[in-house]
Fold:
Amino acid sequence: MAVFLSSFVNRVDKKGRVSVPASFRSVLGPDATGIVVFRSLQYDALDGCSIAHLELLSQSLEKLDLPPEAYELIETTIFGGSQQVAFDGEGRVSLPPSLTEAVGITDEIVFVGRRKTFQLWNPEKFAAHDAATRSAARAKDLSLSKIIAAASLKMEGSV
Structure:
């Protein structure tokens, strides 16, 4: 199972192009022609994923019985706000200025892996977010071993 891992800081050139990390392009697969980006619903950042991931979201929505206003919110904010951007020959994308300006991305960008998706942040904003989330994780006493143990117990209980 390929997942987006790690964080990378890349420069945005004067034409607004940025190199997508090679490991992220690898997760997207050899047939990927680009990425999809949209404004995060929770953070002052952009969310990124493959078009296949948005297709999975669309299929998942078909299986849910959500109130009409929930569909409206998801369709308008995610699908309506998404931009599909193509890779150039060097693995770069040109991010839409309307999106980068909305979240304060200028000359540098942080790509942050989030398993099946990734985020794109202004470096200073991400540093503050990272510090806050690490503090919250410590306060909740989160650890990998506890997560794995809890998942194992849940799987044993469902057998």
